[in-house]
Each structure stands twice: as structure tokens, then as C-alpha cells.
């Protein structure tokens, strides 16, 4: 099929202001030690709704940044900007300066396909394809032509499953459909699928909200291990989870990034009233 | 009494019963404030009374429609003079028709025996008497039913439950009616088909390679003993259906993919209704489009290439039938493709797949069972399609796979066998029913398989 959308770029107005301090009134330090993704002055509109307002944030190598905040505060919208998944939403309009290792994510010549290969994503509900476990993991490498031979493909698939902590459970049934696994296994399959294309960054949109506590604990351990190789941003509704897995935490409120800081500080000594109210459970 | 007057009166009585019962229920409860004391709302009491008044009367009406005429005629027969009474059934029914004609005052040419005149008078009298009787019974039943229901209203009467039960019974009745109609149609076809198989062996019919349904009118006629091998007909049907599907499946599928994966909402809002227009064109119109436009075009094109294209080629009929089926396939496929969860598309896109890769590798495989089901339904439509092939396909039963030749189909043969004056005891006419039966079985099996496939798919995502 000659149909191809690799070059469909949405008009983007990059801002020139490169702030060095916080975003629009953000408390705390938005910078990462070794930034992979830098975002400055991000604004997102869905139709008439202003979903994200002047948000600036870095995501760094070998760290987990958790994004917390009440529903509808723009956390998911923010991470969907980072791999341009908002492109698929008709009414979404994204402005701001987004950089992946210095490259403009929204530049006209940015290849969305390559971008998404470098910035992987794990969704809220496990969404394995209705294919075999093997084919689920091999999907990304196949489209990007990462494997030259069947043996290389096998290696990638086994390695990804191993790193996602799933190999031991499924190695005897790689031909069975991925949809037949349990919820937690499905989510780990989706993580294996995401790391099979060797991304630099993994975005996770409430990856445990559909899972039971045991499966959640498995995934959290996994996230901690993955930190060694990848930069990870995780959206979560569970403050305990944010405290357990992340090094830095960002608190969003009604489209504003209210506060960013080391996780420990956010939960023990927040610098903003709204953050304090939220983490102490007074609302949200 | 005229039937319409009676029905109007009847309806009035039923409506009266509703309002009377409602008022009585309210009165029984001690005004609007006391409605809590009633088990059922006043409206339920009203419906209950209306149903009590309507149902028995309707039952009597239905019974009368079934047997009333026969009862009257039975009475008339007893008054016939002697020579008629000992007649055979078929002759007797002719005489009775004469009586009817006399009674209605029609002068249907020819002399009528004068002794039938009093019989006709007797028939008229009986007929009008029976009408009066019917009206009286129906109205009395309606009145009595309504009155009885009103009379029995008590606060604790479970009118709501009774109404629900009656409504349920009515609905079950309606659906069994539909099922029985299907069974009736099937039986009528089966009976005629069995008569046919009594004259032509079923093996010859199903596996015979020659079709020429001309039977001799007189025993001394030569060369028209009739051959009833249905294979060429089914081969023709399959050929034309295959051409139609070869056109409709790729185009319909691509239309569906465009509509569900690529089209912007505005484009979708424009294209979908246009496709539905295509689906709304009567097949007769497609038929003469095929016969008058497509067939000549094909022939000229074939001549230019040095090919010999028959003016009623399978290709022409198949192409046009394919166009007819496009909206069928595209709208069914569009539905199943839309039912594929967005999360699968997101998952694929987030891995860096393009829309076309996502469609080809994730969406279509996920929707495939549903698409296959839709295609099977479309095949059974193509096989049963009549008008296009009657107008655009040939009449000669030829066993060929060359789409440029004229072939005939099962439906075309059924039409030609039954058009015009026919005697219903010759194998020629009865063959139509055998063909119809086989066609029915084939499409039934296809539909069942298609529905099973579609259902299995539905279970996956719901």
C-alpha cells in the first residue's frame, strides 16, 4: 500500500524563549542531571480547552520521573506530547519547545516513526496485539527492520522478554496468543514490546491501574531495573507508587506544573500549598 | 353491518375500557393522592382492561377469517339441488364460484342454470347474517371483557404484572409468526421439490451436466425429453458471483479502511451517505445498466482487442453485481474495523508504525473474522441476486469458466421456468422449486457460517 503518514507534520509554533528557571510559576528545579528530553513552555489545546499551560520539564537518563496530580490535570497529555501521540487526536494543538537529545521533536523534518522508536510508550490498559507472544514482541523490530535474520530477531525477542521479566513464564508458549496472558503478564509483554526497539525513553501512562497489587509490585520492580538503561516518565494515580519507583516527582494541577523536585522532598516537605494538600490526601 | 363500522366501534370500546378502568382505579384508591395504595398504576389498570376487551374479540375475528367462509359455504351446499350435491369436489367448487358470481351480481358471460338463482339468494342471506352475527359477537365480547376487567379492579390487583405477561405473550406470538412464515415458505418449496424429484432422480438433478428443461407437450413430439442437470446453472451462478466478489471485496475493503482509518470526519460524513445511495439503487436499475451500458462497452472493448465477447457475458453481469455489493461489504467491514479497540492502534503507532502498517498488521488481522463474516453474507446475496442476472446474463446453460461467454444462473432459470402460463404438474415447472430449494439451502448455510464467524469475533472484544 502506498499509504504512508510518515511525513504528516502538524503545524507547530516553536517558542524562542529558552528559560533556565522554572516554568510558569513552577516551584522547584525542573532540570535533570543528564537530560534526554527537555520541554520548555509546552501548551496544549484540545479545541477550546487549554489542557497544559506553560509547562517546562526535563527527563533525564537513568532516572524515573513520576507525574502525579488529580484526574484531568494534564499528566497524560504531557507525556503524549513527548512521542507526538497527540498527533492522532484531531482537535489537539501543541506548542512549545520539545527536544530529544537536542533535536526538535516537533521540527518539520522530524520523522515521527524514528521518534516513536526512540520514545516508547506503555499504556494504561494492557493492549497486546491479537497475535502470538513472539509476534507481539517482534512487531516493532520487524517494522523498523532491526533484525537482519531470523536468529537476530529471536535474540531481540528473547532479550526483551528477559529484560521485562517475562521470559521464564512464557518461554514454552511463545506461539500462544498474547491476549491469553494474565493482566500483569500482558502489561509486561507490552513493556517487552516497547523495549524491543531499544528506545532511549519509556513513557508509562498509569501502567498499573488495571492490575492487582501483586502484578503491580512485579511491574514496579521492573521499572526500577529498567532505570539502568532508560529514561522513564511514569504517570500514576498512586502516590505510594510514585514514592516507591521514582527519583523525581512532578505535581500537575489543572494544566499547570505546580511543583517538581526530588521525590522524597515532594512527599515530605512540599514547597507549594497545592502539592501539600494533594500528597497529604486533603483533596484529589 | 359493514366491517369498517364494526372495527371502528370495536376500537372505541377498547379505548373506553382503558379510560373507564383508569378512572375506576383512581376512584378506588381514593383520588390521586391515594395512588400509593394501588398495587399498579392506574394506567396499568387501563391497559389491562383494554387488553381484556380487545384480545378475546380479536381471537374471534381471527378464527372467523380462517373458517367463516367455509362454514357459510357448507350451509349453502346443503341447499343445492340434488344433481349438484353428489358432485366431485373440484366440480363443486366451480359451481360454488358460479353461486358467488351470481350473488355479487356479476354478469360473467355464458348462461347460468336457473336453479342456482335461489341458491345465490340463500348464500347472500347467510353471508349478511353471518356478518351481523360476527359483529354482535365481537362487540359483545369487547364490551364484556372491558366491563369484567373494570368490575374486578381492586387496589391489590396485580394489573402491571398481568399486562406485562400479556405483552410478552403478544411479542412471542409476533416472533413465532415470523418463524412460522419462514417454515411455511420452506415447506411449500420442499413439497413441490419432492414432487419434482418423484419424476427426475435427485442424483441426475444434482450432478447432471446438461440443462434443457423443455419437455414434450405431446407423447409423439421428438427431441424435447428434457434434461435437468443443475450443474451448469450452479457453475454459472458461481462464476458470476466470483466475478462480483472479485470486484466488491477489494474495493469495499479499501473503502472501509479509508473511511475508518484515514478519512477526516467531514469526508466520512460525505462519503458514507453516498455509498448508502449506491446501496439504495433498485437492482432492476443495475440490471439495465449492465445490459445497456456495460455489456456493449465490454463487447466493443473485446472487439478492439480481438476477443469474442458475448453480448450477455458473465463478466458484464458480474461486474455490475460487484458494484452493487460494494456498499454492503464496505459498511459491514467499516463496522468491524471500527470495533477494533483504539488501544491496539495506539500501541502500534507508539512503536513507530505508520497508519498503513498499523492497518495492515494490526487492525485488519484483528477485524478479519468479522470481515470474513461480512464477505460470506455478501456471497449469499450475490448467489441469490436475481434482477441483474435476469437482465444481463444469458439464458443458455453452458458449462464454462470463460467469463466472456454467456452463462445462466439458478435464479434466471427459476424466473424463466415460472414466467407465463405453466402447468404445475410438469417437471419443467417443478424444477424451479427444486432449484429454489437448493438455492435456499446454500444461502442458509452461508448465512449460518457467516453469523457464527461474526459472533465469535464479537466475543473477543466485548
Main features:
heterodimer, A: 284 residues, alpha/beta, 10 helices, B: mainly alpha, 2 domains, 1% strand
Uncertain parts of chain A: 1-23
- Approximately how much beta-strand content do the residues of chain A carry? 15-25%
The percent of residues in helical segments of chain A reads 25-40%
Question: Which overall shape of chain A is indicated by the principal axes computed on the Cα atoms?
Answer: globular
What is the terminal-to-terminal distance of chain B? 58 Å
CATH class of the largest domain in chain B: Mainly Alpha
Largest interface: A-B, 33 and 26 residues
N-end to C-end Cα span of chain A: 48 Å
| Share of helix of chain B, binned | over 70%
Strand count of chain B: 2
**CATH level-four homologous superfamily name of the largest domain in chain B:** MetI-like
Description:
The complex is a heterodimer of chains A (284) and B (462). Chain A is of the alpha/beta class and 284 residues long. Chain A has a domain at 35-126 and 200-279: Rossmann fold, CATH 3.40.50.300. Chain A contains 10 helices and 10 strands. Chain A has helices at 75-82, 112-118, 133-144, 150-163, 167-170, 183-195, 213-226, 239-245, 263-268, 273-279; strands at residues 35-46, 49-60, 64-68, 92-100, 103-104, 119-122, 201-205, 231-235, 248-253, 256-262. In chain A, the strands form 2 sheets. Chain A has a 6-stranded mixed beta sheet with strand order 6-7-8-3-9-10, with helices on both faces. Chain A has a 4-stranded antiparallel beta sheet with strand order 2-1-4-5, with helices on one face. In chain A, β9 and β10 form a beta hairpin. In chain A, α4 (150-163) crosses α6 (183-195) and α6 packs parallel to α7. In chain A, 49% of the residues are buried. Chain B is mainly alpha-helical and 462 residues long. Chain B has 2 domains: 3-157, no CATH class; 227-461, MetI-like (MetI-like fold). Chain B has helices at residues 3-29, 42-78, 82-85, 89-103, 116-151, 159-199, 202-207, 231-262, 265-280, 283-305, 314-339, 342-350, 355-384, 387-392, 410-418, 427-461; strands at 211-212, 227-228. In chain B, strands 1-2 form a two-stranded antiparallel sheet. In chain B, α1 packs antiparallel against α2, α9 (265-280) crosses α11 and α13 runs antiparallel to α16. The longest helix of chain B is centred in the middle third of the chain and has 41 residues, at 159-199. The mean pLDDT of chain B is 85. The interface between A and B is medium-sized, with 33 and 26 residues.
Amino acid at each position: 500500500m502506498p499509504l504512508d503518514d510518515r511525513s504528516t507534520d502538524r503545524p507547530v509554533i516553536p517558542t524562542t524563549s529558552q528559560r533556565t528557571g522554572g516554568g510558569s510559576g513552577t516551584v522547584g528545579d525542573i532540570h535533570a542531571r543528564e537530560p534526554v528530553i527537555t520541554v520548555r513552555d509546552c501548551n496544549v489545546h484540545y479545541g477550546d480547552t487549554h489542557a497544559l499551560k506553560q509547562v517546562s520539564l526535563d527527563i533525564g537518563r537513568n532516572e524515573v520521573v513520576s507525574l502525579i496530580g488529580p484526574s484531568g490535570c494534564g499528566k497524560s497529555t504531557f507525556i503524549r506530547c513527548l512521542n507526538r501521540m497527540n498527533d492522532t487526536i484531531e482537535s489537539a494543538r501543541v506548542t512549545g519547545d520539545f527536544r530529544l537529545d537536542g533535536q526538535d521533536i516537533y521540527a518539520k523534518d522530524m520523522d515521527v516513526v524514528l521518534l516513536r522508536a526512540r520514545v516508547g510508550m506503555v499504556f494504561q490498559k494492557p493492549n497486546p496485539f491479537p497475535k502470538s507472544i513472539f509476534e507481539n514482541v517482534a512487531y516493532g523490530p520487524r517494522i523498523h527492520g532491526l533484525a537482519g535474520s531470523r536468529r537476530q530477531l529471536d535474540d531481540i525477542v528473547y532479550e526483551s522478554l528477559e529484560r521485562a521479566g517475562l521470559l521464564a513464564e512464557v518461554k514454552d508458549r511463545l506461539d500462544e496468543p498474547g491476549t491469553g496472558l494474565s493482566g500483569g503478564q500482558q502489561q509486561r509483554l507490552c513493556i517487552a514490546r516497547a523495549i524491543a526497539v531499544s528506545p532511549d525513553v519509556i513513557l508509562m501512562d498509569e501502567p498499573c491501574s488495571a492490575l492487582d497489587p501483586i502484578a503491580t509490585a512485579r511491574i514496579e520492580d521492573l521499572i526500577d531495573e529498567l532505570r539502568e538503561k532508560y529514561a522513564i516518565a511514569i504517570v500514576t494515580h498512586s502516590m505510594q507508587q510514585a514514592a516507591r519507583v521514582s527519583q523525581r516527582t512532578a505535581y500537575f494541577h489543572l494544566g499547570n506544573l505546580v511543583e517538581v523536585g526530588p521525590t522524597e522532598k515532594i512527599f515530605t516537605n512540599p514547597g507549594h500549598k497545592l502539592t501539600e494538600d494533594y500528597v497529604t490526601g486533603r483533596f484529589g | 353491518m359493514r366491517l369498517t363500522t364494526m372495527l371502528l366501534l370495536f376500537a372505541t370500546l377498547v379505548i373506553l375500557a382503558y379510560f373507564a378502568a383508569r378512572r375506576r382505579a383512581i376512584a378506588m384508591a381514593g383520588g390521586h393522592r391515594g395512588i400509593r395504595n394501588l398495587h399498579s398504576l392506574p394506567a396499568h389498570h387501563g391497559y389491562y382492561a383494554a387488553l381484556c376487551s380487545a384480545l378475546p374479540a380479536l381471537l374471534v375475528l381471527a378464527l372467523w377469517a380462517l373458517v367463516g367462509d367455509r362454514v357459510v359455504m357448507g350451509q349453502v351446499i346443503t341447499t343445492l339441488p340434488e344433481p349438484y350435491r353428489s358432485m366431485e369436489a373440484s366440480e363443486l367448487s366451480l359451481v360454488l364460484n358460479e353461486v358467488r358470481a351470481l350473488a355479487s351480481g356479476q354478469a360473467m358471460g355464458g348462461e347460468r342454470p336457473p336453479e342456482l338463482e335461489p341458491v345465490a339468494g340463500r348464500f347472500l342471506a347467510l353471508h349478511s347474517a353471518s356478518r351481523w352475527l360476527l359483529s354482535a359477537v365481537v362487540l359483545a365480547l369487547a364490551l364484556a371483557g372491558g366491563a369484567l376487567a373494570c368490575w374486578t379492579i381492586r387496589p391489590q390487583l396485580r394489573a402491571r404484572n398481568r399486562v406485562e405477561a400479556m405483552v410478552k405473550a403478544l411479542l412471542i406470538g409476533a416472533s413465532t409468526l415470523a418463524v412460522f412464515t419462514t417454515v411455511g415458505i420452506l415447506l411449500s418449496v420442499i413439497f413441490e421439490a419432492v414432487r419434482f424429484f418423484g419424476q427426475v432422480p435427485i442424483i441426475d438433478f444434482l450432478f447432471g451436466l446438461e440443462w434443457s428443461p423443455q419437455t414434450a407437450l405431446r407423447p409423439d413430439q421428438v427431441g424435447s425429453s428434457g434434461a435437468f442437470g443443475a450443474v451448469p446453472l450452479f457453475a454459472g451462478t458461481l462464476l458470476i458471483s466470483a466475478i462480483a466478489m472479485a470486484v466488491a471485496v477489494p474495493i469495499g475493503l479499501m473503502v472501509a479502511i479509508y473511511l475508518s482509518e484515514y478519512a477526516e470526519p467531514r469526508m466520512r460524513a460525505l462519503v458514507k451517505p453516498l455509498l448508502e445511495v449506491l446501496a439504495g439503487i433498485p437492482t432492476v436499475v443495475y440490471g439495465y445498466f449492465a445490459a445497456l451500458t456495460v455489456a456493449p462497452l465490454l463487447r466493443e472493448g473485446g472487439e478492439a482487442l480481438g476477443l469474442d465477447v458475448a453480448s450477455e457475458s458473465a463478466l458484464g453481469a458480474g461486474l455490475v453485481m460487484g458494484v452493487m455489493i460494494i456498499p454492503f461489504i464496505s459498511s459491514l467491514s467499516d463496522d468491524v474495523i471500527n470495533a477494533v479497540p483504539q488501544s491496539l492502534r495506539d500501541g502500534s503507532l507508539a512503536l513507530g508504525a505508520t497508519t498503513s502498517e498499523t492497518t495492515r498488521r494490526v487492525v485488519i488481522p484483528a477485524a478479519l473474522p468479522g470481515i470474513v463474516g461480512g464477505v460470506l453474507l455478501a456471497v449469499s446475496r450475490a448467489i441469490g441476486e436475481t434482477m441483474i442476472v435476469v437482465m444481463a446474463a444469458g439464458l443458455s446453460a453452458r458449462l464454462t469458466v470463460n467469463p466472456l461467454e454467456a452463462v445462466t444462473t439458478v435464479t434466471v432459470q427459476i424466473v424463466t421456468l415460472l414466467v407465463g402460463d405453466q402447468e404445475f404438474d410438469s417437471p419443467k415447472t417443478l424444477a424451479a422449486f427444486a432449484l429454489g430449494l437448493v438455492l435456499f439451502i446454500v444461502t442458509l448455510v452461508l448465512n449460518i457460517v457467516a453469523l457464527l464467524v461474526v459472533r465469535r469475533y464479537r466475543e473477543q472484544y466485548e
